[in-house]
Amino acid sequence: MSGVKTLLAIVELGGYPDFSAVYENHGLAVLKANSMRKALALLKKQAPDVVVAEFIYGPTYGSQLSNFESLLAILQRHAPQAKLIAFLHKEDMPHLQRLTARFPIHARLFYPIDAQKLEQSLVDIS
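Below the sequence we write its predicted structure tokens.
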């Protein structure tokens, strides 16, 4: 392998700019998934160095609090070294904190996503 680090961007809802150029400026090869289901399948095949995902809290996930439970389980198993950056609404922070004992969250960025804070999160990883 060439040593190029990879970043998986999971964009389920969007509503913010495409940060691919920011990721690439930090030397990261970008993989994208537009659903958690597709992202989980990809994670079973390839372990990225960084994962950026939207934390979506809601009762629509059945027995789970959010879209992150499955993501965290797969990361723990297939990519334990990956750094996770979560995009979320401030009011959802207590729900995300309930999950952090299972897998550390490298950075939490609140909507609207500030590109400079995202860049700083990437700098902190390297």
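The CA atoms of residues 13 and 54 lie 8 Å apart.
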